[in-house]
Amino acid sequence: MVLSSDSSDNAEQEEDLKIVIQNQEKLKSIFYKNVKQETHEHRIPFIIYPDNKFNQIWEVLNTICIILSCFITPISLAFSDDLSSNDSFTALMYFFDFFFLSDIIMNFITANKDENEKVIDDIKIISSQYIKSWFIIDLISIFPFDLIIHKIDPDNAQINSFNKILRVLRIGKLYRLIRVVKQFQQNLDPNSIENRH
After folding, report:
1. Is 85 helix (H, G, I), strand (E, B) or coil?
2. Which pairs from 58-64 meet CB under 8 Å and 24+ separation?
3. DSSP 8-state secondary structure symbol assigned to residue 134
4. What pLDDT score was predicted for residue 194?
5. Is the pTM for the entire model greater than 0.85?
């Protein structure tokens, strides 16, 4: 008799435990549904969020352009005189400059996360963080010094030699690779507190 009461008590406890687990799962799904809904309701228009599909595609394209530019930039510096007459190469360099200019604009409107994984979507804070970190390097690396100097006096030898020195500033594009590496480290390490900028 004692054994049967023990087994019925165990059966009741198991049944109670199943009910508790089911209720927990229901509460969890309701909570996550509400959090997700609340998150999307409070999103600011014109701000690109990290989980946005467009942002994820842009990051992949950005990485590809940075890696390609790491190969092309040193070649353009070494053989600038020979390549300046090549229309295809010039068009490719303009494409990279235009893409990286677009990326600069994107950085001003892309939300990122703080050390507590809270999304920062205040445009003033985003802009301030970007200006204090990568903005100057990004801007210098795409600024068309060579075009401006060439327009001033294309036949002046001193200006042309100065132009070659200024072209070295384009090496700043290679610093973007550091940011890509940090981005990958952040994606691989969930405990990382580095943000996009």
Report:
1. coil
2. 58/103, 58/106, 59/183, 61/99, 62/99, 62/103, 62/180, 63/180, 63/183
3. T
4. 44
5. no
- pLDDT for 43-75, tens place per residue? 888 899 988 899 889 988 988 988 888 888 788
Please count the other Cβ atoms lying within 10 Å of the Cβ belonging to residue 24: 10
**What digits encode the pLDDT tens for the residues 147-192?**
777 677 666 656 666 666 666 676 776 777 777 777 667 666 555 4
Q: Phi and psi for 187 in degrees, rounded to 5?
A: -70, -35
Q: How far apart are CA 103 and CA 9, in angstroms?
A: 65
Q: What is the DSSP letter of 172?
A: G
User: In sequence order, what are the residues at sequence separation of 6 or more whose Cβ sits closer than 8 angstroms to the Cβ of residue 113?
Assistant: 50, 119, 120, 195
| R_g (Cα) of the chain, nearest Å | 27
Composition of the chain by helix, strand, coil, percent to 5: 75, 5, 20
Query: What is d(CA 1, CA 14) in angstroms, rounded to the nearest whole number?
Result: 20
